[in-house]
């Protein structure tokens, strides 16, 4: 996953944390995001689910895109999977933007 995408995901997570009055959220890194997600879950279930879905979909897309074995063995299936997960990511991203009113 690119550093730019990690940064974008964390900006959304930090913004959700800020809206839910979670202190020091901006100091949490991508690696430590689960700690912040757990706190967000206790404050706002909907916000937690939306941002968690976005992050999980981004990770899934990254794994599929980097699966060289599947790409070589079944390129048609691999391409179809990428298109499907890209669509899931766009939908998740739009839901987060709508929630945050971005």
Structural description of this entry:
This protein has 102 residues and is mainly α. Helix content is 79%, strand content 0%. It contains 5 helices and no strands. It has helices spanning 3-19, 33-43, 45-65, 68-73, 75-100. Helix 1 runs antiparallel to helix 3 (45-65) and helix 2 (33-43) runs antiparallel to helix 3 (45-65). The model has no long low-confidence stretch (mean pLDDT 94).
Work out the helix count. Answer: 5
Q: Which percent range describes the beta-strand content? A: under 5%
Structural class: mainly alpha
Secondary-structure element order, N to C: HHHHH
Overall pLDDT metric? 94
The global form is: elongated
Terminal CA distance? 23 Å
β-strand number:
0
The profile of the biggest β sheet is: none
Q: Uncertain regions: pLDDT < 50 for 5+ in a row?
A: none
List keywords for this structure.
mainly alpha; 102 residues
Topology:
Blueprint: H1 3-19, H2 33-43, H3 45-65, H4 68-73, H5 75-100
Helix pairs in contact: 1-2, 1-3, 2-3, 3-5
Short description:
79% of the residues lie in helices and 0% in strands. It has 102 residues and is mostly helical. The mean pLDDT is 94.
